[in-house]
Amino acid sequence: MIVAHIQAAGTPRELGRAHGAALAVRLRAFLDDGLARLNHLTDDPLTLDELRSSIAEYRSEITAVVPDLAEEVAGLAEGAGITEEEAWLLQLRREMMGRRLVPTGGDCTSYARTGPGTRPVLAQTVDLAADLDSHIAVLQLARTGSPRRVAVLSFHGLLGFLGMNSDGLAIGVNLVTDGLWRPGVTPYLAIRHLLDRAGSVTEALELLAGLTLSSSRNMLLCDPERTVFAELCRNELRVTEPAGGSAAHTNHYLHRDFVPFDRQSLFDRVSSDDRLWAITEGMAEIDPQARAEEYFDVLSRPPVCISDRGEYRVERTVAAAVLRPAERKLHLRPGNPNHSGTRVYTV
Length: 347
What we know:
single chain; six-stranded antiparallel β-sheet; 9 helices; 14 strands
C-alpha cells in the first residue's frame, strides 16, 4: 500500500509548498473525486460554490488563532497548483459534512500507557469512511524557528490528524459527538498546533484550554511521563488523568459532566462500548515493556479493528499506529493492520 511520505523544513509557507508540490497530482485527483469524496457520502451533493461562505468563516477563525497554519495552507495551494479555497476544503472535509455524516461503524479506538517500569506508548486505530486508506500521508516537518520537529499521520492535503513531536509529546484522537458544528479551529489543526507548540502534556493542555474548537473530540495525550485524555464538548474542556497511567477511549463521553450531551445513536454506542471493553482488556494483557508489534496484535482484533464490509459510507479501520514518545518513533500499519507490514518513522 502506498503511503505518501513528505519531509520538509522551512517557514510555514515553505512547508506547505513542499507538501503541495509532492502531492500535486494526487490532490487534484482527490478534489475531482466527488469533491474530495464528500459527495460519495451524502445523498445531497455539495458544490464548492455552496461551501464558499462556510469555508470563509472557518478560514477567518483559524487564521486569527493559528496564523502559521493558515500560511501553510496558502503554501499548500501554491505548491499543488490548486485554489486556496480547495486547500482549505482539504482541512475542513469533516466540518463541511457536520451532522450529514453520522458514524455507524466506529471512529477510532485509542489507548496510552505511561508509568514506572513502562515503555510509554500511545496506540490507536484510525476508522474512517470513503476508503481513505488510499490517501494516507506521513508528514515529517521542521518549522523555521521552532525548537521541535513533528511527525504527523494524516491524509492527502490535511495538515494534522494524529502524531508526535521531537520532545516526546504524542496525541491521538477520537470522535465524540455533542451534535454541534460551528466555525472555529478544527480539532485536526488544533492537534497539529499543539504538536508544533508544546513540549509536554502539561504545555499542550494549557494551549488547548485557550482554543475554541469547531466540533467535539477526545484527545489522548501522552509524553514519557504522563497520560491524560481531554474531552471537548460545547466549548468546554474536561481532563482526566487515570490512576495507574493507562487510558483508553472510543467514541462516547466518559466524563460525567459531558455524558448528558452525548449524541451517539444506540447502534454507535454499542460499538463504542464493545471496543472500549476490548481495548482495555487486550492492552491489560500486554507486558509494560512490550514491543510495538504486540500492541498491533490488539489493534488488529475485532471489534477494535473494523473490517471492510464493502460499505463505502461506513467507517472501517484504514490505519493503525503505535507511537513511542520516549523513543520518538511512529510505527504505522496502513489499511487493515491485519494485512500490512509495519513502517517506522523517527521524529
